[in-house]
Design goal:
The N terminus is likely disordered. The chain has 3 helices and 13 strands. By secondary structure, the chain is mainly beta. The termini are far apart. The strands form 3 sheets. Strands 9, 10, 11, 12 and 13 form a 5-stranded antiparallel beta sheet that branches. Strands 1-2-3-4 form a 4-stranded antiparallel beta sheet. Strands 5-6-7-8 form a 4-stranded antiparallel beta sheet, with no helix packed on it. Strand 10 and strand 11 form a beta hairpin.
């Protein structure tokens, strides 16, 4: 069995504010950290669990992977990929099954006892197809309006193999949902796959605490992709050594519209994070 860290460790709840050049909004000691979702699984592979499905969280009916966290003042909102119970976990390369983006909120800085129940932030059924995979949540607070934007990737059920994702442009799509109440509820998600380029095949937004807002107001959401012209895009058996390119998705109108930003590579980057450097 693959040992997985607690999601408290994975989320690193000493999260800084969403504003890229702001000081940390909260800091928790090790004693104050508490699991947010459990169990947390590192890879969706039945061999890791002796050929059986990973256990589900009793309270929510989900297994959990790919965490993300965002904070604004004392409010902390944690997100994760919620794997639906009974969806049939499959070993690689056909590893995808129906999943939702789930969340939990803490209005008191993430301390034990302050976490609200698990919510479904965005369900696969509400986007296109309940069999699809929603993954790699990338949240960012917009400080002028207080809105919380949640960007994520949709993996269509019909293209659920590594080969399909590496060889087909737009096999994975970019979507965004907006919350005006601090992550309690989200608007219906909007497809913004126009931020991707036709030369990109495997594609994803970056989870974790990846997205930021710059001091001038620009929202920056990082991601990564494989370029269809690279000769080694499908040849390296080690997924972590594939020729990954890094890119950004940006908004200069407080989240009303989104467009492609810079792209660099191949750098063999994966779930990269955005950081505002001193000017």
């Amino acid at each position: 069995m693959v040992a997985a860290p607690s999601l408290a460790t994975a989320l690193a709840l000493s999260a800084a504010a969403a504003v890229g050049d702001a000081p940390p909004a909260l800091t928790l000691t090790l004693a104050e950290r508490t699991p947010v979702f459990s169990p947390y699984i590192a890879w969706m592979n039945t061999s890791s669990w002796g050929g059986k499905q990973p256990p589900q969280t009793k309270a929510s009916g989900y297994s959990v992977r790919i965490p993300a966290v965002i904070s604004s003042g004392p409010l902390v909102v944690a997100f994760a990929q919620g794997l639906i119970q009974g969806c049939g976990f499959a070993p690689r390369p056909s590893m995808y099954c129906a999943k939702d983006i789930i969340s939990r909120r803490s209005p008191r800085g993430g301390v034990a006892g302050s976490w609200e129940p698990v919510r479904v932030a965005v369900s696969a059924a509400s986007v296109v197809d309940p069999r699809d995979s929603l993954d790699n949540p990338s949240p960012v607070f917009e400080r002028h309006s207080g809105a919380l934007f949640l960007l994520f990737t949709r993996q269509p059920y019909a293209l659920n193999t590594i080969a399909a994702m590496e060889l087909n442009p737009y096999a994975r799509e970019t979507w965004v949902a907006r919350s005006g109440d601090g992550g309690r509820t989200f608007s219906p998600a909007t497809n913004i796959t126009h931020v991707q380029r036709r030369t990109w095949t495997w594609y994803s937004t970056s989870p974790g605490r990846a997205a930021i807002q710059l001091s001038g107001g620009r929202l920056v959401v990082p991601g990564y992709h494989i370029h269809d012209s690279h000769p080694n895009r499908t040849r390296n058996p080690d997924w972590g050594m594939r020729p990954m390119f890094g890119h950004t998705i940006i908004s200069d109108d407080f989240g009303k519209s989104w467009r492609a930003g810079a792209s660099e590579g191949p750098l063999n980057v994966d779930e990269n994070q955005a950081v505002a450097l001193p000017s």
